[in-house]
Design brief:
heterodimer, A: alpha/beta, Rossmann fold, eight-stranded mixed sheet, 12 helices, 34% helix, 22% strand, disordered N terminus, B: mainly alpha, MetI-like fold
Chain lengths: 335, 297
Amino acid sequence: MLSTPRAAEVRASGTAAPLLEVQGLTVRFRTERKSLQALTDIGFSMAPGEILGIVGESGSGKTQILLTMMGLLAENGRAFGSVKLHGEEVLNLPSDKLDRIRGSRMTMIFQDPMTSLNPYMRVGKQLTEVLVKHRGVGGSEAVRQAAAMLEHVRIPEAQRRMGMYPHEFSGGMRQRAMIAMALLCKPALLLADEPTTALDVTVQAQILMLMRDLARESGTSVVLVTHDLGVVADLCDRVIVLYGGRIMEDGPIDDVFYNPKHPYTKGLLRSMPRLDEKTHGDLPTIPGQPPVLSLLSGGCPFEARCELRQDHCKSVFPPLVRSGPRRLSCHEVSL
Amino acid sequence: MTETAMAADRDVAVEKGVSQTREAMGRLVRNPAAMFGIVVMVLLFLACFLGPIVFGLDPEASDFDAVSLPPTFANGHWFGTDDLGRDLLTRTLTGGRVSLLLGVTATLVALGIGVIYGAIAGYAGGRIDSLMMRFVDVFYAVPFIFFVILLTFLFGRSLLSLLIAIGAVYWLTIAVIVRGETLSLKRKEFIEAAKAGGMSAPAIIFRHIVPNTVAPVIVYASMTVSDVILGESLLSFLGLGVQEPNTSWGVLIEDGAATMESQWWPLIFPAAFLAATLFALNYIADGLRDAFDPKSR
């Protein structure tokens, strides 16, 4: 396990100063009747060049982590805690300061490439806009760099495509253009929110590999949010399993995948179809439904669906216990 | 056109990239009714702005040998003359200048204010939005005629006060439309992406939001031009608009209506010009709506 190059890389870079440090991140939404807590006490740190996967079911708060970090929280949301990029607090910054960081030092790729580009602006213009703003490069130099980046994300005839509009691009090309736009300013941190969900499977794999290669080349750290465990296994160095807005399990990818500890992680991995399995029965599922946030009590959010549940699980939330590179939050299992 | 020339043409089109607006314009040009409307409007503009110069007639010159003359080709008064002996063809055309010019400029003024106002309100959201839209509601509640009387009282009866009055009324609807569009646009991912790219709020509003409202705005604007021309006619008809010796279609129709029991020509010609303009503009508006939303046809 420890001998895989990816794990070794993480160890090696783990000694460096953390690029990103998230502590006690809690997000509440004020709704008409009450306030909902979408994220509770999220904490993690990332080394430069690391690729972190965040997995969980719909509504587990995956996307909210990214949006909160980018300062794109919905108007009725409030964030508490701390998000430090290069040791500098970025959470709840005023928008003028945030505008200088966003796009240049951290940036985000969105889920749907179909709506992520302005339909009324030439792709080239949208790409150079970011460069001109953050790097202050002149028009023709920006065009050259943008075309080179499009070339880099393997868009054929990049120079010609610069003058085209998004509706003249295919879905895969648009997502590549989005990635090019995100990487153009060489950000230290790239947040990717299910960047390939809207694409078909063959394109998905290409785009993901491309993202990984580009991130490795430029030393960009990536947070990848997805519910596709296969993607995480292929791409990430480390994975955080999220449930009901809390971290359930966190650790190096191989440790978590080959030796899952948390009953929820085990359930997730069991419910993944495998090609090498001989049985042809029904795919195992986790019984029950994801929790309704407003109904959560102080206990473990997974309690109602957990096969190991005990009485105290309902009332006391298990602390997130660290052991080596792994963290786990469960009363009944320990690392 | 030969096969290769066509292929070359296609290549050139791809090379530049065709915007959705350009594609819509392509559809508009292929729409016969809309093209008819455009041709009529071009002819009307040419006639009104060049006609009087070409004919070399003075709209205020009276021909006292030919007072209240019915249309004849013999002495050159094709549309007849009014009770002061002024040539009605010339007056209809110069009146058209005022009507068309007012229609276009008032619409542009209304567009300018309405688009910016609506985009800012929609993008800002929350309390600013509520405040700005309540202000619009207040303006909506002021009756048009009352508003014009108030303005003419303040600024005197001039084309400018008429322009301000009409512009001040028509920007309201545009602001409401653009605000609605902005509310849905700002939830789109490309706006989030622009924010994630560190774009400032003004840059997002003017570079990403405003261009995306072009479809509903251009359709509404084409309808507003005819509304404004009609509004000007109404005000002139009521004696609140353009003053003698200047004229507009509304003024001419008012004069014609006063004498319509004895003379038909002072009413019919300006009325026909006004009707032709409104028809043409509505065809264009219809065509634009289809062009920007080809799926709804």
